[in-house]
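REQUEST ID: PR-0412
SUBMITTED BY: lab tech R.K.
PRIORITY: routine
TASK: structure prediction, single protein chain
INPUT:
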Amino acid sequence: MKHFVKIFFSFILLTYCTISQAHWKVQGRDAIYGYSGIDMSTGQEKNVLLAIGFDNRAGCRTTASLIIISGKQLGAPVSQKTSKNFKNQLVISVDGRDHTSFTKLTQYVSGVESTMLASNELIEALKHGRSVSVNFNSRRNPDSLTIPNMNGFSEALKKAEANCH
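STATUS: complete
OUTPUT:
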């Protein structure tokens, strides 16, 4: 799935977010949560996003993407692969329950995007969840995203879905 436009606008969105003020925003057909920070090992800016979106090429099917950008730009795509193996999948944990699916991983010059179809069960869990974390692969790693509360998610999701029709 090509998300060049989403990533471009998401990056612009992130330039206005910090860890302390991250919240749900709507960008086109996507509800986006993200933050910017400094990678302490490299001193470089790191942007992490969760995008729950609607793919209009697939009848507005819901997708979930974790996007990680090192520096200011994602850059050109370098490679793409898919995985059905749990250890290489996007994992969204809602209140301690893991949700995962077949994942498409796109590697860019300065980042990565992992995308999966989002089940109705996952979307309902996100609407009512209190504790959400997002990771790529079964290991918990420094590129995880923790969302302290889901306030604003349902409203952002409705607006994003309306933009798909």
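NOTES: The longest strand covers residues 45-55.
REVIEWED BY: pending
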